[in-house]
Amino acid sequence: MTEIVFATNNQNKIREIEILLPPVFHIKKLIDIGCNEELPETHHTIEENSAEKATYVFEKYRVNCFSEDSGLEVEALDGEPGVDSAHYAGDRDANRNMDKLLENMQGKENRNAQFKTVITLILNGVQHQFTGILKGKIGTEKRGLYGFGYDPVFVLPDGRTLAELMLDEKSRISHRGIATKKLITFLTDLT
Ligand code: IMP
Question: Which of 33, 81, 85, 114 has its CA 20 to 30 A from that of 45?
Fold first, then answer.
């Protein structure tokens, strides 16, 4: 049995990954290793922040671990909100974040955007990253009732917003789902 710490205390994210992993892997959360602190996220890219969280846990606790960091990148805004996705409008309020985004997108012809998740795994001291990308466009209004964050303004190639997809469909196609599948394939190939 290989124990891996998922550098999060978000039980939903842990459950999502746990059910997909082969049984030889056992996921622990931060609290299980006595880590109750906020992990540092001091960089300007999703890749670096993801690596920073895993590196912090590895260096302090010397355990196999992985972390994830996600965000929305909008072409016409030079990649914004990016690492600031969660608190774009100042706090963690999704509605205010979307309002600010829609305002900043007013009059922009190029509405291309992508969600990105980067998972950083540190296994036996070696770092591996797995990226998941979901491409779409920023709509002109909020639509849909499901999901979270920017889902109501993120329009898929088929015209639906992410907030119009039920959870299981979203997880199949999402940036987070794609990165998670790559992590699981990597870990499964090791067994
Ligand atoms: P986190 O890394 O999962 O905390 O995501 C950072 C921020 O990116 C979230 O607070 C959301 O604002 C945004 N975000 C990440 N993934 C999604 C998604 O699947 N849908 C909508 N917003 C997302």
Answer: 33
